[in-house]
Amino acid sequence: MIFRREIVRNLKPLLIWSGIIGGLILLTLAVFPQMAKQQETVGAMIDSLPDAMKKAFGMDRLGMDSLIGYYGIRVYLMPTLVGSIYAAILAGNIVAKESAEKTIEFLLSKPVTRFQVIGQKLLAVIVNLIILNTIIVLAALAGFQFAETSDVSPGTFLLLTLATFFLHLTFASIAFLLSSALRRTRNITSTSLGIVLFSYFLNVISAMSEDLALIKHFSFFHYIDAADIITTNGIDSKYIIVMVSIVIICLATAFSYFKKRDITV
Amino acid sequence: MHIVDIHHLTKYYKKDRGIIDISFSIDEGEIFGFIGPNGAGKSTTIRTLLNFIHPTEGRATIFGKDVVRHSKEIRRNVGYLPSEVHYYDDMKVIDLLLYSLKFYPKGDIHRIHELSSQLELDLHRKIEDLSFGNRKKVGIVQALLHSPKLLILDEPTSGLDPLMQQVFFRMLEDERRKGTTIFFSSHVLSEVRNLCDRVAIVKEGQLIKVESIESLMKNQLRSVILTIDHPEHVSLNINGIVKCEIRGNEIQLLYGGDIRELLNAINVLAYQDIRIEEPSLDEIFMHYYKQEGEKTNDL
């Protein structure tokens, strides 16, 4: 019941966010053929950019002349950053909304365990993220059709897709923990958005200077860096371990805390 | 068998007092009132029974099952009406009731229509747009729709107009005839009096007394206010005066004896006005405190 209700209730925001992300991907990819034609001008323009900026956006290692390089530099940011914002808002609200709107008493007076309440809500988050990522993939595949020749290897694209989904899942888990532990949705939304944006800018800043290179390890966006994935054709296993551990720890804490927590409205 | 059994239940919110060492039990088929002023711990007790909050000490059972460990099974047969009714703002009344119904395997959709027509509740309005009283009606239907064996109602009548209160009390009587046990809290004694078999009185987190309505009525207190010139010269020497206070030209009495005896004594005085009222809950509590105090002194 709760799962179905959450899917229905979150359908509209899901469609809006996936529409925006999917649309941005399509639009940006639609420009690629023109870009590819004016290769020399674009190349010169990129060369004129400061080194730090080139590094920050992976332009030092990826080329705009290849479709996958273009995807990594210009497109990949949208599903990862915007999608993470969506994931954080969705997961941050899903439990706390019930406390904030005081409907949690209604829910908990029904014959359901707390495990079922939060478990079904988590399932709804995951299903929403899967749908979002499916739309991202479809938009990207459709966008690739604009290019006359495609050099995108399915393996690399699959890695980028998985990386995006894992990133969403990581931010969603952190927000979900906040959502099941705290009562104020406003605080949760701003905190989880803060984590996403902080993480993003950490990655941008760390790429700009060698001195700041160490802090990149604290940014989830660095873990799924497009230039890394495309050039090495793999995701660093230590980063996968970190992300999986964070997901497991956050969710386990959320479940055990919510089970013991006093629900006061 | 006791439907509800509470043993030395204590709840502290961090350091703030919720309830302290409350024990009482409710029998099957009983209508049990839970009386106390705001902040006395009524809702805390109810929320502990429903396992929204966890007891600091003590324990409670419903249908013989522990409220913490078997909460889900218990709630299959419990209907709960919160004191403040809050529902999802995107739902219509019928959506909320159908959603609620889905949680109960033996739920019956006809009962929604039956109950809402009794309460004159419009099923197709948005809950968001409803008045406090109408929202309360949604809460009542929601609490009753699965024919629970135990009804837990937290301040059920607040927000209902007197006519609706009568309808609601009749519904409770119907439930009682079916064998439902009803536990409800209120801060109005008169409301409870006509309906309940027994009441528990709480104040400042502590149980003051559990008493049957009969004996509560027997030593029923009256608040008598007499307007008279020079009240300080008046002396009333009759049994049953619990409290006597002089304020300006008024004598305020709390009286628990034979009312005719008091009126006879007053009749000889040159009073200007007399008001006989039901004492406030606070005055009744004072009375009970005093009684408790005397008992301890006797020991």
TrEMBL record, chain A:
Query: Which sequence ranges form a coiled-coil region, renumbered to this chain?
Result: none
Question: Which molecular function GO terms apply here?
Answer: ABC-type transporter activity
An example of a Pfam family matching this protein is: ABC2_membrane_2
For this UniProt record, the keywords arranged alphabetically read as follows: Membrane, Transmembrane, Transmembrane helix
Q: Which domain of life is it from?
A: Bacteria
What residue intervals traverse the membrane? 14-32, 73-96, 122-144, 156-178, 190-209, 239-258
Report what the protein is called: ABC-2 type transport system permease protein
List the source organism.
Paenibacillus catalpae
Q: What taxonomic classification does the UniProt entry list for its organism?
A: Bacteria, Bacillati, Bacillota, Bacilli, Bacillales
TrEMBL record, chain B:
Q: Which GO terms describe its molecular function?
A: ATP binding; ATP hydrolysis activity
Any idea where the ABC transporter domain is?
4-229
Which InterPro entries did the record assign? Answer: AAA+_ATPase (IPR003593), ABC_transporter-like_ATP-bd (IPR003439), ABC_transporter-like_CS (IPR017871), ABC_transporter_ATP-binding (IPR050763), P-loop_NTPase (IPR027417)
Q: Which Pfam families match?
A: ABC_tran
Q: Can you tell me where the transmembrane regions are?
A: none
Supply the PROSITE patterns for this chain.
ABC_TRANSPORTER_1, ABC_TRANSPORTER_2
Q: Which family does it belong to?
A: Belongs to the ABC transporter superfamily.
Q: What is this protein called?
A: ABC-2 type transport system ATP-binding protein
